[in-house]
# Entry
Amino acid sequence: MKKITYLIFAFIMLIFISECTGYKPIFGSTNIQFDIVDYDIKGDKIIGKKIYSQLHGLSKSVKNDQNITSVKLLIDTLKNKEATVKDSVGKILEYKITIKTKIITTDFITDEKILNQTFISSLTYKVQDQYSDTIKLENKLVENLINKIFQEILIKLSHNITTK
# Structure
């Protein structure tokens, strides 16, 4: 009786596993068919270059296809760091980092705007006991904000390119 139960259970699991083999994400990187022909970075060059390198890497992963959209890209970034909490002496206890990125993407051939949007993302963090730990935490949070903005850009860009 146990062998039959195990056999039925294994058969049902095999059916469930085989049903998931055709999974494809909606906004997968293979759905986005674009090639960055020209770009310009304004504002904070370091953050702008990091966002551009992620977009450029994604555009180069696309195989040669006739449906590739050639685009011009303008990235304008601004990083702002401000103190949010101070103690009674005036010592800063908490900071807020805000990254504002404006992306303008136009079709290289028709000069039609594909994406013209500003993305704003921010996080707060507490000052650590050691200054080096505070700097490490700040750099890690900036990387997280850049990745978050990149994902938002990717979703909007893929939506606008596929509906074009």
Observations:
- DSSP finds three helices and four strands in the chain.
- The domain at 2-162 is CATH 3.30.160.150 (Double Stranded RNA Binding Domain).
